[in-house]
Each structure stands twice: as structure tokens, then as C-alpha cells.
Predict the 3D structure of the following.
Amino acid sequence: MPAAIRMYATATCPYCIHAEQLLRSRGVTEIDKIRTDLDPAQRGRMIEETGRRTVPQIFIGGYHVGGCDDLMALDRAGKLEPMLRGEPA
């Protein structure tokens, strides 16, 4: 079963766009995108949940991956696709 993806993002953030493109290229069809630019209260929730202030903040199957650079590092290490399939990190 594919892991659920949740991502705090804004519409114009190039890192958010790149992270989504990477996820889509790995077969992800559904992303629960929480737009912090449309709902500023969500930014506070994101900071509380992650301890980070920047977007994107990405969760795969409930696990906080981090930002775009963290997602790309997981992909380079060959760990992203197993996580997306719901395998243990």
C-alpha cells in the first residue's frame, strides 16, 4: 500500500515545486498539500509540528522527511521509493 504524502507548501516556492515534481516522477499521484500561503495559521501548525520555518516540509507515511534537499538526499540514497511503497524507513 502506498504511503500517504503530506506536504506543507506555497504556490510559488521553487523548492515546493521541485519536491512535488520529484514525488510525481516516482509515481506519487496523491499529495495532501497544505498551503501555508492561503492559510497562515497552517504555518504556525507546521512550525509547531516540525520545528522548522521553511517550506516545503514533507511527511511520508507519517514520517517527517524534512525539506526538498532532504527528499532529494533520500532519493539519491535509494531510500525514497521504498518509503513511498510503505516499507519501513
